């Protein structure tokens, strides 16, 4: 599990000011916390974390000497500036199911003999206890053929009794479509007459 150091944020300092100083703002909340704790984290540390973990990832969040088992709940990315503005966490409780999402990654696409995979769904939403959390799903599409479709109900996560899926079981995750190559007949004809 990745670790991230954070500090309690002084709310008298504006988030905009902190961002200019190289910090990302955020908070941690949870059922066992009396109230949410405002945080500030070093931007470089957040960038390092987000290379390994995304939304739904688990983190050991260290705040002023205390470590929380936490879930990355929200990542507020500023596309204009190209960095993360805000990062929110949920403190996990071992006996409480939490809402999370798992990213779907297609693997072995290059092994497809015919057709190209069309990914329709990029993440699955679910509820589970902290011990059963899934961060990403690797889906092997190497043996699929044109016309094959994989739905949520076909995934391993759907067979796990410890996970309550929130995404519709009938939703299409990936389908393999025929690769259509349209030959430019007009240029071929022109080439023949020029010879």
Describe the structure in your own words.
There is one protein chain. The chain has 195 residues and is an alpha+beta fold. The protein has 4 helices and 13 strands. The chain has helices spanning 15-20, 43-52, 156-159, 185-194, and strands spanning 2-8, 23-29, 37-42, 58-63, 66-78, 83-91, 98-107, 116-119, 123-128, 136-140, 149-151, 163-165, 172-177. It has a 6-stranded mixed beta barrel. It has a 4-stranded mixed β-sheet with strand order 10-7-9-12. It starts with a strand and ends with a helix.
What's this entry about, in short?
The chain is an alpha+beta fold and 195 residues long.
Order of helices and strands: EHEEHEEEEEEEEHEEH
Mean model confidence by pLDDT: 88
Structural class: alpha+beta
Termini distance?
67 Å
Number of helices: 4
The main sheet comes to:
6 strands, mixed, barrel
Count the beta strands: 13
Catalogue the unreliable spans.
185-190
Pick out its properties.
alpha+beta; single chain; 4-stranded mixed sheet; globular; 4 helices; 6-stranded mixed beta barrel; about 15% helix
Summarize the helices and strands and which ones pair or pack:
Blueprint: E1 2-8, H1 15-20, E2 23-29, E3 37-42, H2 43-52, E4 58-63, E5 66-78, E6 83-91, E7 98-107, E8 116-119, E9 123-128, E10 136-140, E11 149-151, H3 156-159, E12 163-165, E13 172-177, H4 185-194
Parallel strand pairs: 1-4, 2-6, 7-10
Antiparallel strand pairs: 1-3, 2-3, 4-5, 5-6, 7-9, 8-13, 9-12, 11-13
